[in-house]
Design brief:
The C terminus is likely disordered. The chain has a single domain, classed as MFS general substrate transporter like domains (Growth Hormone, Chain: A). It is built from 21 helices and 2 strands. Helix 1 packs parallel to helix 7. It has a two-stranded antiparallel sheet with strand order 1-2. The termini are close together. By secondary structure, the protein is an all-alpha fold. The radius of gyration is 21 Å and the shape is globular.
Length: about 450
């Protein structure tokens, strides 16, 4: 039985680890929006260079499902904890190497090729992060507080935005434009080398999840978890992918493309644009435990769907508020969009998705569903956003795209199972009415934890 101190320790560790790992992922997005077009794609004109820079950012999303499949397989076979530690070390190491990369001026075409390769490896690592961090908390949590505790690793996303944008803002403030282009941009990436040590120590101290320990004690596991997901949970997985459309597209419009829109279209200074995103992220962080707890009281689907509807309804007012050029109005627009649109959906998401799969394939299921959605919705969004604004001469086409995504999300959410307050063990039976695939014994002792 997991006591309150155990679940608090696991939740804190997951939140800190997720913060550090998502910091690595987001710092690339900030750099891609602010400087990479000049350093790695200088042969292009400014708009084309920005699109090429954002394309390198999108490469990470292509890698995420691959990472989700690989980490999910071994997470279901040898344990959640080992994969969490591995993904953290890989992400931190790759991000540190990006900070050492020579630019186009030094080695020519090799610079963007190396940048894109390392971004792919970043995506591979983060592909295993979300499923593992989520399940460590969800599978430790009591049924009536699963939404509340499940919001904690998602708080790492908001905290990472604050940390990454804060470090980037501090760096830009303390350097001239020439210094930032010469060496200042490297500082946030190199800092990852120190942060990963902290994350490694914290995650090593967390115990394996009770659900996986139960699988160990029964000496059975799916031989090929991803094959079982595709064979027995394909429809449900596609519904989960559809359900994430508005959240995925809006998140990167607000957190990545908004920096481009504010600095290039509205000529807002980079430090001010970054600071606005930090303020919105801070209030989102504060709101997430509330929305997670709310999902325990009224249901995951209501909270998640409410956030999706809000994103679709608010996107036109959001851009109109940005276009005023008034800094207080811009900060208010970003904060409202992030708190009520993203805070609600991010908080309910871990419990909602995890409750759709049985334990033996849960890591694979949640990883594939979550990461496949990022390929379809998140990856192309910054590029599409730049193209839509260029083609339309304004934001209306991009806003219409977000409205369409909100409609798709609502349709995807409706058929999903509501399991707030239900014990995870009770969800095992009837999770799929189709025949289960072949199982084989779990290799004893691979998780490094004793069954309790």
């Amino acid at each position: 039985m997991v006591n309150d101190s155990d679940i608090r320790r696991v939740s804190f560790a997951s939140a800190i680890g997720a913060t550090l790992e998502w910091y690595d992922f987001f710092i690339f997005g900030s750099a891609a929006a602010l400087i990479f077009n000049k350093l790695f794609f200088p042969a292009f004109d400014p708009v084309a260079g920005t699109i090429a820079s954002l394309a390198s950012f999108a490469i990470g999303f292509i890698a995420r499902p691959v990472g989700g499949i690989v980490f999910g397989h071994y997470g279901d076979r040898i344990g959640r904890k080992a994969m969490l530690v591995l993904s953290l070390l890989m992400m931190g190491g790759v991000t540190f190497l990006i900070g050492l990369l020579p630019t186009y001026e030094s080695i020519g075409l090799g610079a963007p090729i190396l940048l894109t390769t390392l971004r792919f490896l970043q995506g591979f690592a983060v592909g295993g992060e979300w499923g593992g961090a989520t399940l460590m908390v969800i599978e430790h949590s009591p049924a009536k507080k699963r939404g509340f505790y499940g919001a904690w690793p998602q708080m790492g996303i908001s905290a990472a935005l604050i940390l990454s944008t804060g470090v980037m803002a501090l760096t830009t403030a303390l350097t001239t434009a020439e210094q930032f282009a010469a060496w200042g941009w490297r500082v946030p990436f190199l800092l990852s080398g120190l942060l990963v040590v902290v994350g490694f120590i914290i995650r090593r101290r967390v115990s394996e999840s009770p659900s996986f320990q139960k699988l160990q004690r029964s000496h059975t596991a799916e031989k090929m978890p991803i094959a079982t997901v595709l064979a027995t949970q394909k429809k449900r997985t596609l519904q989960i992918v559809a359900a994430q459309a508005a959240e995925n597209t809006s998140f990167f419009v607000i957190s990545v493309y908004a920096l481009v829109y504010l600095t290039q279209n509205l000529h807002i200074g980079k430090p001010l644009a970054i600071r606005a995103l930090m303020i919105g992220s801070f209030f989102t962080l504060l709101s997430q435990p509330f929305f997670g707890a709310l999902s325990d009281r009224i249901g995951r689907k209501k909270v998640y769907m409410g956030g999706m509807i809000f994103l679709g309804a608010f996107i036109f007012p959001f851009f109109r508020m940005l276009d005023t050029g008034s800094y207080p109005v811009i900060v208010t627009a970003i904060t409202i969009a992030m708190v009520f649109g993203l805070g609600s959906t991010l908080s309910a998401q871990p419990a909602l998705i995890s409750e759709q799969y049985p334990a033996a394939i849960r890591y694979s299921g949640v990883s594939v569903a979550y990461q496949l959605a990022t390929v379809i919705w998140s990856g192309p969004t910054p590029i599409l956003a730049a193209l839509f604004v260029m083609w339309a001469g304004g934001y209306w086409l991009l806003a219409a795209y977000i409205v369409l995504a909100a409609v798709i999300s609502v349709l995807g959410i409706m058929p999903l199972r509501e399991a707030a307050g239900v014990e995870l063990a009770a969800l095992e039976d009837g999770a799929s009415r189709e025949p289960r695939m072949e199982r084989q014994p779990v290799a004893a002792g691979l998780s490094g934890e004793q069954a309790s």
